[in-house]
Amino acid sequence: MGYIMNLRKKIGTDPIIMVGACVLIFNERGELLMQHRIDNNCWGLVGGSMELGETLEEVAIREMYEETGLTANNLTLFGIFSGKELYYQYPHGDEVYNVATTYICDDYDGELHFDPEEADDLQFFSLDALPEHISPPDKVVIGKYLAHVTN
After folding, report:
1. Run of H or E residues at 30
2. What is the pLDDT of residue 151?
């Protein structure tokens, strides 16, 4: 997260607009992959912020690989989420208004493993048995996905 870290050195914890991508990763049983995040002790989606010069799809592919060890063979755009619902204050005080481009991936290769600097677990969950504590911005995205698939 070089760009955001450099920006934070200049502005501190003040609110910023943070552009990034996340990925709804599904296994062959239709279960959603989530990571248990170290920073807020919540379950969340795989994803992260954009670095200078990256496309949003490149962000999704990079973050998916860094955080799970999985390489996307195909990504499908699900939606772009922004606004007050995606405001978040990290436990250490940084404030962000997320702009999250969300992709779906059910075609990937690789060995599943988590990044110990960001998470302490990765698990697939059935959509009707998601974990209780979900990171607030990801809860919005997952809710929109659930509404989409039940309609």
Report:
1. none
2. 72
**Tokens of residue 134, six digits:** 């979900």
Contact indicator for 99, 86 with CB cutoff of 8 Å: yes
Q: Quick one: pLDDT at residue 1?
A: 54
pTM over 0.85: yes
Domains present along the chain, CATH in parentheses: 2-139 (3.90.79.10)
Q: What residues contact 31, with CB distance under 8 A and at least 6 apart? A: 124, 125, 126, 127
8 Å CB contact between 45 and 67: no
Taking a C-beta distance cutoff of 8 angstroms, is the pair 34, 131 a contact?
yes
Mean pLDDT computed over 128-132: 96
Residue 100 and residue 47 in contact, taking contact as beta carbons nearer than 8 Å: yes
Q: List the structure tokens of 117.
A: 């600097």
Residue 116 CB contacts under 8 Å (≥ 6 apart), including other chains: none
Structure-token match 């279960």, residue found: 31
